[in-house]
Amino acid sequence: MLKAKQAKLILENGTVFTGKSFGSEKSTAGEVVFYTAMTGYPESLTDPSYTGQILVSTYPMIGNYGVPHGHKENGIHKYYESNKLHISGLVISDYSFEFSHWNAEKSLSDWLKEYNVPGIFDIDTRALTKILRDKGSMLGKIEFEGEETDFYDPNKENLVARASCTEREVYGDGEKRVVLIDCGVKNNIIRCLLKRGTTVIRVPWNYDFSNEDYDGVFISNGPGDPAMCEETVQNVKKAIGGEKPVMGICLGNQLLARAAGADTYKLKFGHRSHNQPVILQGTDRCFITSQNHGFAVATETLPNDWEPLFTNANDNTNEGIKHKTKPFFSTQFHPEASSGPTDTEFLFDDFIDSIKKD
After folding, report:
1. What share of the chain in percent tops pLDDT 70?
2. Cα-based distances in Å from 157 to 30, 227, 347
3. Example GO molecular function term (predicted)?
4. Any residues with CB less than 8 A from the CB of 257 and at least 6 apart, and which?
5. Residues comprising the binding site for L-glutamine?
6. Which residues contact 203 (CB under 8 A, 6 or more apart)?
7. What is the mean pLDDT of residues 195-216?
8. What is the residue-averaged pLDDT of the chain?
9. Is the pLDDT of residue 358 over 80?
């Protein structure tokens, strides 16, 4: 059993939670957000969209199935959503000191220490989540005795520049060539594109891809405020000035909207779960989706040639947009959902099918 050192989670409003360490014993700061998924912590912790955030799990026990092997396929990790942990810290109620799973390679505790990420347990995450739902996502810090640190607001930084790749990379050798704008892409987006017979050209967030030989553009998920990504928006504007298909996911939805001329705004506490219901526009059809975002598109600001594609059934926020005549669309949720429900993966088929080859 781990020898647990005491640690504190301190919120910007002065609230203090005292718990025990099971990760790196390093003080850290960031934006405290909660997520309600019951499974999938290896995927969540490696999701670049969590860059700069202290993640609070509402599920009571974490760590019981350990961490999977770091095997790679097609040049990317098979079981992780990126090549490292992106969270600033992890806060949970109960940590499982023993783990068991056919694919487990190490404990969650060892994994956190490997990437110098603090984790604390024995926290009343129900009480903490109620505070975050009432006050909204808040700045916070995890501190150990004798190691104080200042609060840090990740939303004032261009997190996409931190999460994106730094050079052009190519995966696969399919007939249809897709430029993937990496704003903090999850590996399962690449997997979903590759299994549909594409060549994926992964480029940095600020890369001008207008001279690339491509058949479609894909705008990835990523962390932070879309207003920080003006270079990406300008490049997407060039793409939607043409006719080649464009698809976006999560931050990609917001960036496509901004390129079209719409506005975005920060949500009170965001959507981070496997169970967000969305309604397909013009129908009564509801899909259960996986989500991870803190900003949203202001639907009422969409230009006349654009319209909403999906709407959140809980709070009526925008969950996707589409152009009325051209093959451009995006979703705020994750159709590739790793982890989470895969009900909407057909949207990748829609995107690929819209690509016309001569």
Report:
1. 99
2. 11, 11, 32
3. carbamoyl-phosphate synthase (glutamine-hydrolyzing) activity
4. 263, 264, 297, 302, 306, 318, 321, 330
5. 49, 222, 224, 251, 254, 292, 294-295
6. 165, 168, 179, 180, 181, 182, 209, 212
7. 97
8. 96
9. no
| CATH code 3.40.50.880 region(s) in the chain | 159-354
Binding residue positions: 49, 222, 224, 251, 254, 292, 294-295
> Does the pLDDT value for residue 298 go beyond 70?
yes
Query: Tens of pLDDT along 178-188?
Result: 999 999 999 99
According to the model, what pLDDT value does residue 215 have? 97
CATH 3.50.30.20 corresponds to the domain 6-156: yes
Distance from C-alpha of 119 to C-alpha of 282, rounded to nearest angstrom: 44
Query: Which of the residues are catalytic?
Result: 250, 334, 336
At 308, is the pLDDT very low, low, confident or very high (cuts 50, 70, 90)? very high
Domain span(s) for CATH 3.50.30.20 in the chain: 6-156
The Cα 191–Cα 266 span in angstroms is 30
Read off the pLDDT band of 338 (50, 70, 90).
confident
The Cβ of residue 127 has, within 10 Å, a number of other Cβ atoms equal to 10
